[in-house]
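Quick start: read one record
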Amino acid sequence: MTVTLGEGRTPLLPAPRLSERFGVELWLKWEGANPTGSFKDRGMTVAVTRAVEDGAHTLVCASTGNTAASCAAYAARAGLRAVIVVVRGAAAGPKLSQVRAVGGEIVEVDGTFSDAFAHAEELGSQRGVVVVNSTNPHRIEGQKTAALEILEQLGGAPDMLTLPYGGGGNTRAYALGFGEQLPRIHPVQSADRAHTVASAIRIVEPVHRADAEAAVARSGGAIETVDDAQIAAARELLGREEGLYCEPASAAGIAALDRSARAGERVVCVVTGHGLKDPV
């Protein structure tokens, strides 16, 4: 049985006003339309389905918030226990509310995301417990479906793809999904990974750094860095110009367009999560 909440098949929206502003043909992959409001659901359906097949009774993850909400929701759908490890005070309140609403158990630790992840892995070493962070290969397999959708929706690959860069798993997933039709990839990170207002990418040590950097190099792209003021301005611009309300991290790709996009290109910007998940 597939554990699903109807994830995927999200809109690819034209952005005419931002296209004119940046001198490109810009499309927005609106992942906030997924069931729990972020792209994480794509991978979670696959990871949880496989966990059920393997006889798991508990799912565990470390999270800045979006993985937490997704893990808890899909665990509830499957009738499993969900244990969510977060850094104390670091996850957005609405995301933790999502966890509580579907019966997830929240464990707070001090330190950084790396500390939370280490604790999740320790819990995951127990029999019948499955870690569903993006280190779980089934998560990446699910997330790469977004690239397949873009190929179908556009009728081919864009010239460039830009997206937020936190742990790097989504960059890796898109590169796998595009395969031989790889666009130039420009992941965008915060200048202050430890304290950025963009909580979804508040990850000091990206777990998938090596794979993400290799994918970017293979594509001919580059990792971009923006500050919180640029993220906030891009978030406001996306809302006022195109009507999309996204969480701060999701605007990172827009924040770097003026330096990464080339005139006349077809560009896809991945907008990873809904604004109601982190309404700062």
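Residues 228-242 form the longest helix (15 residues).
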